[in-house]
Amino acid sequence: MDQTLKSPIRITESPRDAMQGLKHFIPTENKIRYINALLKVGFDIIDFFSFVSPKAIPQFSDVNKAMSMLDLNDTDTELLTIIGNAKWGEEAAKWEIIDWFGFPFSISETFQKMNLNSSHEHSLETVKRLLEITDKNNKDLRCYLSMAFGNPYGEKWDIDVVTEWIYKLNKEGVRHIAISDTIGVSKPKDIHEIFTLVFKEFPETDFGFHLHTSKKGLFEKIEAAWDAGCRNFDSVLTGIGGCPLSGYELVGNLDTLDLISFINEKNIPYRIDNDMLNDAVRIASEIFSPLPTNFSPVSLDL
Q1: Pick the residue with more confidence: 113 or 89?
Q2: What pTM, to 2 d.p., does this model score?
Q3: Hey, where are the domains in the chain?
Q4: Cross-strand partners of 78
């Protein structure tokens, strides 16, 4: 793997998104074996765990044990963890090896209450507090803008609503935002329109794309974001996961192998160690395939 390669695309690999919806508990050793393998592939960021109440997501009740088992030798991949509130932000801040906090902020207040039991007002206060924590501890905050491509709950949704919430988050100091298709309803036209507008209106903000999607029309969606200027993409090996508390069927995530196919087709330079990628795919197939029959929604998806 060429560590000096400068690539125009950044990938956040998210084993957390794949694991959190599994009802059965994955042994800590297996989780870490998988994450340690991903750390050797060359991804820019690994979204690896959540710091949340064990009652909310039992799958990550072992977070502190797991943290001490990570192998960060021979990798420059950064670590991102999802944070549910300021209390857990303080807990995560104790770990110097964490580079990023991720906070799910839905433009739908209905979904924000379903997902985090939090109003918009309270969530903005959480954002302020997390910014204080990350600034103090040399970390960055990424807000995941959920329900950015549609609102299934009867609340108003259009592109102006999307930009209004980006403006409010910007005003608080948020400079990293992942625009998220929470229930797999985005269309290439809408993707292109939204990304084109936000890059124009918020030139100082680093935008990414967190895409829940089926295989149908997948490449058109990636290309729409790419053509509009998006260079940061979240993905999940195996493509499993999805939105857990929306009341809608899980549609899965953008599969990393599909994203890599797009990268190769477009001849985009990217630093992947293929041997390490194949090793990670093998471990993922052991952990996630076939998809368990007891796959069950939990909170804190994006």
Answers
A1: 89
A2: 0.91
A3: 10-288
A4: 45
